[in-house]
Amino acid sequence: MTTHLVWFRRDLRLHDNLALAAACRNGAARVLALYIATPEQWAAHDMAPRQAAFIASQLNALRTALAEKGIPLIFEEVKDFAASVNTVKTLCQQHEVSHLFYNYQYEVNERQRDAALESALAGVVCEGFDDSVILPPGAVMTGNHEMYKVFTPFKNAWLKRLKEGIPECVAAPAPRGNGTFSASRPIAFSYPQLDFDATLFPTEEKAVIARLRHFCKQGAREYERLRDFPATEGTSRLSASLATGGISPRQCLHRLLAEQPQALEDGPGSVWLNELIWREFYRHLMTYHPQLCKHRPFIRWTDRVQWQSNSAHWHAWQEGNTGYPIVDAAMRQLNATGWMHNRLRMITASFLVKDLLIDWREGERYFMSQLIDGDLAANNGGWQWAASTGTDAAPYFRIFNPTTQGEKFDRDGDFIRQWIPELRGVPGKAIHEPWKWATKEGIKLNYPQPIVDHKQARLETLAAYEAARKG
């Protein structure tokens, strides 16, 4: 009997899984599934303990769902990617595998692993798929056959290409003829894990699909109006599932267009579609510019910025004790939940880099170590945007004022009070500069004064960037 092996990585679902669907097309083949945990590799990549727990929960749900289809899931744990190659090779020999199926990952280490695997598997046909994107890298290029360096032209070309033919979603596989399997003891990793809120981040595929349907029907229409206000539930909360492959971007696109058919024409839902295109942009970029995986800036001269090394400032930012309430509330949300609202990611990143003049790579790594939705391409893209070091970056002289950002996006301080209990007694809009209110009222707050003066910090940052640009 022909045996097909599907290697699951960041594609933990049955529906619209290109590798799984391809492996199951031959109804006579025996299909096996595989997942390999690599704790040392995860640690080197700063995987958040909450994301590890999220993946473990997804994996247990996936194993049950696969078992009901007659597909057993083999779980292995080895230290790193190099060891995983040997594991796959051994399993292919043991089970006389003729075809190996997997979905591409675009990061440098992952691509090197897959290249090594294909070299090692003599006699096994390897089939890879562009599953984590709507349009594959290379599908949207400039007239000179180069990757776009600016988002808007990429977006326009991407939309034009998409309208020529929207990729279909593939169905979950039909049950195999070799019966069902009962899951044994729960899958567990020898990697640090932290609890996460399963009501906000569901791991069963049916629940994730239900969340997508609900958001596209209701939330997508209001996304443009509500998305910047962290005290309001205005986002999809699907980022963790997208990062780990619990849902595909094609599913997101199809459901959005089913509910909001004008999304492709700047109608309702188009702003959320824009977020999906940003995700595509960063993944395509990483494929063509692998230095982005290696802590290198896209704009080379920014590597000459003289960053400051101030451990007190660094820890204050990490812990949410900078004296700027919107920054601190955001960081406390991240530390407590493993998630941060997107507007707040921009505000906190700008503050670290352009108020504290701390290297953006430190912030990038810290976010990855905390985020349940940690994704290298999106996280790197966001940090390089905030630091003005990346493609399509904000100009280096554009610097967020953390106080006015708080006043604009959390006007009445509802989000701040949720995460900074020390400030719950501060009335109204005074919460954005609580030290002024406390001084006026003669009250001592259990909350720090600002660790830097924004106006002065802005001038110092501009000088540092200008010196680097002149070389």
Automatic annotation (TrEMBL):
<dbReference type="InterPro" id="IPR006050">
    <property type="entry name" value="DNA_photolyase_N"/>
</dbReference>
<feature type="site" description="Electron transfer via tryptophanyl radical">
    <location>
        <position position="383"/>
    </location>
</feature>
<feature type="binding site">
    <location>
        <position position="272"/>
    </location>
    <ligand>
        <name>FAD</name>
    </ligand>
</feature>
<feature type="binding site">
    <location>
        <begin position="235"/>
        <end position="239"/>
    </location>
    <ligand>
        <name>FAD</name>
    </ligand>
</feature>
<protein>
    <recommendedName>
        <fullName>Deoxyribodipyrimidine photo-lyase</fullName>
        <ecNumber>4.1.99.3</ecNumber>
    </recommendedName>
</protein>
<dbReference type="InterPro" id="IPR036155">
    <property type="entry name" value="Crypto/Photolyase_N_sf"/>
</dbReference>
<feature type="binding site">
    <location>
        <position position="223"/>
    </location>
    <ligand>
        <name>FAD</name>
    </ligand>
</feature>
<feature type="domain" description="Photolyase/cryptochrome alpha/beta">
    <location>
        <begin position="2"/>
        <end position="134"/>
    </location>
</feature>
<dbReference type="InterPro" id="IPR002081">
    <property type="entry name" value="Cryptochrome/DNA_photolyase_1"/>
</dbReference>
<dbReference type="GO" id="GO:0003904">
    <property type="term" value="F:deoxyribodipyrimidine photo-lyase activity"/>
</dbReference>
<feature type="binding site">
    <location>
        <begin position="275"/>
        <end position="282"/>
    </location>
    <ligand>
        <name>FAD</name>
    </ligand>
</feature>
<keyword id="KW-0157">Chromophore</keyword>
<feature type="site" description="Electron transfer via tryptophanyl radical">
    <location>
        <position position="360"/>
    </location>
</feature>
<dbReference type="GO" id="GO:0000719">
    <property type="term" value="P:photoreactive repair"/>
</dbReference>
<dbReference type="Pfam" id="PF03441">
    <property type="entry name" value="FAD_binding_7"/>
</dbReference>
<keyword id="KW-0456">Lyase</keyword>
<feature type="binding site">
    <location>
        <begin position="373"/>
        <end position="375"/>
    </location>
    <ligand>
        <name>FAD</name>
    </ligand>
</feature>
<dbReference type="GO" id="GO:0009416">
    <property type="term" value="P:response to light stimulus"/>
</dbReference>
<dbReference type="InterPro" id="IPR036134">
    <property type="entry name" value="Crypto/Photolyase_FAD-like_sf"/>
</dbReference>
<dbReference type="GO" id="GO:0071949">
    <property type="term" value="F:FAD binding"/>
</dbReference>
<dbReference type="InterPro" id="IPR005101">
    <property type="entry name" value="Cryptochr/Photolyase_FAD-bd"/>
</dbReference>
<keyword id="KW-0274">FAD</keyword>
<feature type="site" description="Electron transfer via tryptophanyl radical">
    <location>
        <position position="307"/>
    </location>
</feature>
<comment type="similarity">
    <text>Belongs to the DNA photolyase class-1 family.</text>
</comment>
<dbReference type="GO" id="GO:0003677">
    <property type="term" value="F:DNA binding"/>
</dbReference>
<dbReference type="InterPro" id="IPR018394">
    <property type="entry name" value="DNA_photolyase_1_CS_C"/>
</dbReference>
<keyword id="KW-0285">Flavoprotein</keyword>
<dbReference type="Pfam" id="PF00875">
    <property type="entry name" value="DNA_photolyase"/>
</dbReference>
<comment type="similarity">
    <text>Belongs to the DNA photolyase family.</text>
</comment>
<dbReference type="InterPro" id="IPR014729">
    <property type="entry name" value="Rossmann-like_a/b/a_fold"/>
</dbReference>
<comment type="function">
    <text>Involved in repair of UV radiation-induced DNA damage. Catalyzes the light-dependent monomerization (300-600 nm) of cyclobutyl pyrimidine dimers (in cis-syn configuration), which are formed between adjacent bases on the same DNA strand upon exposure to ultraviolet radiation.</text>
</comment>
